[in-house]
């Protein structure tokens, strides 16, 4: 049996990595757990590489087998989150989350110990239809939080677990929606300093490498290249490279996409998207792959209400880049092909 039933929850038997210790009688296979084997040998004294510990073999350690058998089965992620959600305020929202977990709803991601500030954008509280203000308040009073997302049938639930306080539940639509306007956002101030490779000359000075030369003009064959980026304020940094690097910047993804879609067919789909990009619309996805792979796993073609046929056709073969942009009531899909003008399709973000 692969799993046990415990009060309706599936539990898998505990698993341990197998490790080997050599003794007078030959190799013995033990179960590793934490910093030692279950029978107490420190891990630095054993070697790994035999997969999962299977009790009952010829060379297995009896003490480890006994302790492995006595280890309680592993609880599923749903069962563990269920226990945490029980501490949230009772009500319909909590009941729905508990019910979804009972039915095995997917839990992803589940992050632990993030700072409240860093986790806030991921929670997408502006999309919340319930629990948003409470979660916001909880974040303001917490320094560290755990958070988990539960995908229900009609909603996405977020469990915000501030350390030292009761969890707060948030209900969000399944599909992501455009964020609020970003006042003051512009292509110019969204530019970031350009990143350069790093190379050291014979005199141990570190230079910024740009293609075939350093920014100060040394051919790359005369420097030793490193994998890390050039850091201008490092003591060994070449001052001329640092000064030139400071004048270079790179455009935001929004600015680059804006430039690319200029070649798309004129019309509202292009113009609305172009305008949204100048205001800093969120690009939720941008990747390149084989067209059919993009169509199957990323494009979400069935959600498009404008331009679906063209995009479907374009992704049926060859390579392409695919971008998703959230703006106003839309999610726009941009397909950039090797040959042919970019295509823009879109569908509503509403559930
Ligand atoms: Zn052992
Ligand atoms: Zn230099």
The number of distinct helices, counting runs of at least 4 residues, comes to 11
Give the number of DSSP strands: 21
Largest sheet data? 4 strands, antiparallel
Structural class: alpha+beta
Number of structural units classed as domains: 4
Radius of gyration: 27 Å
Bound ligand species: zinc ion
The percent range for helix content is 25-40%
Q: Residue ranges: pLDDT <50 for 5 or more in a row?
A: none
Mean pLDDT across residues = 91
Shape: globular
Strand content: 25-35%
C-alpha end-to-end distance: 40 Å
Spatial strand order of the main sheet: 5-4-3-6
Secondary structure layout:
Elements: E1 4-6, E2 9-12, E3 17-23, E4 26-33, E5 36-37, E6 47-52, H1 62-70, E7 74-75, H2 77-85, H3 92-102, E8 106-115, H4 116-123, H5 132-140, E9 144-151, E10 155-162, E11 168-173, H6 187-190, E12 192-193, E13 197-200, E14 206-210, E15 213-214, E16 224-229, H7 239-247, E17 249-250, H8 253-260, H9 268-278, E18 282-290, H10 291-297, H11 308-314, E19 319-327, E20 330-337, E21 343-348
Antiparallel strand pairs: 1-2, 2-7, 3-4, 3-6, 4-5, 8-9, 9-10, 10-11, 12-17, 13-14, 13-16, 14-15, 18-19, 19-20, 20-21
Helix pairs in contact: 2-3, 8-9
One zinc ion is lined by residues 207, 214-216, 238, 240-241.
């Amino acid at each position: 049996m692969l799993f046990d039933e415990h009060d309706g929850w599936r539990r898998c038997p505990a698993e341990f990595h197998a490790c080997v210790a050599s003794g007078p009688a030959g190799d013995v296979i033990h179960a590793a757990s934490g910093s030692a084997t279950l029978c107490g040998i420190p891990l630095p004294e054993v070697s790994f590489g035999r997969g999962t510990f299977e009790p009952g073999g010829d060379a297995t350690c009896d003490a480890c087998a006994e302790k492995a058998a006595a280890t309680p089965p592993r609880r599923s992620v749903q069962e563990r989150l269920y226990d945490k959600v029980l501490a949230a305020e009772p009500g319909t929202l909590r009941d729905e989350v508990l019910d979804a977990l009972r039915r095995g709803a997917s839990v992803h991601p589940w992050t632990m110990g993030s700072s409240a500030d860093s986790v806030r954008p991921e929670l997408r509280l502006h999309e919340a239809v319930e629990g948003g203000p409470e979660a916001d308040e909880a974040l303001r009073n917490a320094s560290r939080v755990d958070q988990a997302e539960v995908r229900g049938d009609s909603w996405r639930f977020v469990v915000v677990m501030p350390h030292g306080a009761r969890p707060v539940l948030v209900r969000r639509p399944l599909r992501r929606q455009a964020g609020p306007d970003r006042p003051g956002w512009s292509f110019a101030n969204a530019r970031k300093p350009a990143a350069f490779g790093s190379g050291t000359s014979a005199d141990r000075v570190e230079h910024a490498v740009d293609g075939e030369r350093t920014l100060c003009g040394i051919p790359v064959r005369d420097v030793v290249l490193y994998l890390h980026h050039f850091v201008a304020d490092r003591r060994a940094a070449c001052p001329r490279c640092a000064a030139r690097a400071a004048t270079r910047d790179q455009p935001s993804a929004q600015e680059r996409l804006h430039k690319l879609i200029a070649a798309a067919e004129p019309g509202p789909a292009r113009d609305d998207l172009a305008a949204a990009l100048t205001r800093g619309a969120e690009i939720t996805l941008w990747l390149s792959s084989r067209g059919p792979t993009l169509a199957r796993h990323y494009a979400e073609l069935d959600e498009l209400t404008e331009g679906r046929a063209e995009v479907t056709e374009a992704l049926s073969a060859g390579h392409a880049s695919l971008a998703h942009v959230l703006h106003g009531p839309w999610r726009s899909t941009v397909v950039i092909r090797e040959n042919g003008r970019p295509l823009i399709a879109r569908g509503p973000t509403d559930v």
